[in-house]
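As noted in the main text, all predictions were made from sequence alone. Below is one such record, for Lrp/AsnC family transcriptional regulator.
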Amino acid sequence: MREELLKIIEKNSRIDLKELAVILGVEEIDVVNEMAAMEAEGIICGYHTLIDWEKTSIEKVSALIEVRVTPQRGQGFDSIAERIYKYPEVHAVYLISGGFDLLVTLEGKSLKEVSAFVSDKLSTLDSILSTATHFILKKYKDHGTILTRKYEDQREMITP
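Prediction:
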């Protein structure tokens, strides 16, 4: 039940518990207990809402920053990753393979604000060797959800 439950709530965390119990073929109390157990174990880490900010009047700029660092003796990349993820602007930090070591995602109000974060805060950290900033221009799909819909002609077809 646990794996199936996780797959369902990953796609829709707002699903009604009764509906979830029916889908899984168990009692609602079993779903409640299992979710509480997974929250306590740190398997379920949070619940988030996916928002298409382009459809609002709020201006946001998202960026992906590749970071090359010198790992610290005995701690590897963990301590520098922790220093980075403590900044409120930072949404996520990932250890990655390839030419860079970390991938940092963040949001700001403008290109200038994001650039200032990278140059004033991120690049000045001791073990940072270099960064490469990539601004997100458009999101097509995020967390498994397609954000762009193709235009479909809604006009009624008239034939003679």
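Residues 18 and 28 are 6 Å apart (CA to CA). The chain has two domains: 2-40, 53-138. These features were considered when defining construct boundaries for the mutagenesis experiments described in Section 2.9.
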